[in-house]
Model the fold of this input.
Amino acid sequence: MKIGFIGTGTMGLPMLKNLLKRGHRIVAYDILSAALDEAEAAGAERAGSTAAAAAAGDLVITMLPSSGNVEAAYLGTGGILEGAKEGRLTIDMSTIDPGTSQRVAARLAERHLRFLDAPVSGALGRAIEGTLTIMVGGEARDLEEARPVLSAMGSTIIHVGAVGAGEVAKLCNNLIAGAAMIAVAEAFRLGEAFGVEPRVLTDVIAHSSGATWVMEYGHPVPGINPDAASSRGYAAGFMTDLMAKDVGLAVAAAREKRIPVFLAPAAAQLYRLASAYGFGRKDFSSLYEFLKPASREAPV
Ligand code: NAD
Done:
């Protein structure tokens, strides 16, 4: 299949490489020419605009940072709405606000273009392996059409519901992961302060009710899990800025539905604060670094 691929950044590039490996042809576009150079070096054809990439593809995939970028790429001047041929299927794999997915889908439908929201979980490592979890919102028959392409990038593909539902599932997941990482970071700071060896505490928690995915795979204390971002200077992984964005999106979605949320806004603020203090581009487990104890002179 010939695929128009827009957004060849951290995640987009390895996803595109896996599509090429499966024999698909790619026409790529990114507003950053350095990002596009890498896609070209990997074997993609270079397009001069989003509309041109969309026009060339039998299918269009986008992997962009935030809601505003997705809106601009689909509905803006020189965008997908202008370029894609009637009846084409478009798939947005970015993590954005579900309301934006629904608005974009409605505008595309006016021109008989189809849309799936298909955000991913798994970060860079699993994007490289092609083993992402992909959660999909949209028509079941559109997902069946997209499945062979999606399966080049992900090993678990779940149909969640109508357009926007994939994004809702992604925000729910990251709300849990974001809040859990804060709890793990606080717990290990507390344990250490009382002289409990982090490896021993890890062993206790791994066999108790506090066991969590973020501790097992993304342990925030350096040296415990050699594969975790903390063991390589907190190089992301999944960066603090993205976690701040995703938990913030969950808060906004909850507000729209008038759901009282308590932990999510606190978590979003903490990640924003860590970002303001220079942890934004580091892995979100660097929150453990941010939560250093105050000096011994500080009153308790
Ligand atoms: P990134 O910033 O590395 O890459 C995004 C690319 O999109 C950049 O190269 C940028 O130049 C390009 N871009 C932005 N606006 C554009 C436009 N209008 N037209 C064309 N290109 C445009 O971001 P990323 O880490 O690849 O993340 C992409 C999405 O995936 C985000 O929504 C993120 O939340 C989500 N995500 C990321 C991870 C991760 O670990 N990085 C994991 C899961 C999900």
Remarks:
- The chain has two domains: 2-162, 168-290.
- The first helix runs from residue 12 to 21.
- The chain is about 50% helix and 15% strand.
- Residues 6-12, 29-32, 35, 50, 63-65, 69, 72-73, 94-95, 120, 123-124, 238, 242 surround nicotinamide-adenine-dinucleotide (CB under 6 Å).
